[in-house]
Amino acid sequence: MRVDSEIIGKPNLSDPEDVKRGEFLPGGEAWQAFRRREIDATKFGVYGTENWGPAEIKGNLLRDLAALNKVEMLPWDEWGPMRPMYAGETGEEFDEVLDQIAEICARDSFGPIASYYSGSDLRVPNEMIGIGI
Fold this sequence. Notes:
It is a single chain. 39% of the residues lie in helices and 0% in strands. It is mostly helical.
């Protein structure tokens, strides 16, 4: 079940306590739709900043991967390959990694999600979440 806690009690959606597919796109679904050319990436993020368009969809996918591993980050947090990604310095090879992440997240099975996250350079550094400080 998808819940949008920011709009409970507001008229934005018919049922914010049971958000239907298509009413909100998690990072993985947005990435897959972008790759299939079904959505306009310029409608995602904050226009006029580095945090919009395809790069923001990519960033949200990586933040979703972290959140699914109980590491919730702020929308402006960056780690690992995110700086070069936002600067447009990553290419098709990195996009293919994102395809894999989106597919893993879509399966909705925690085992593969945790396994991928723990073994990748996409993991949030301990210093950013207060471990080992």
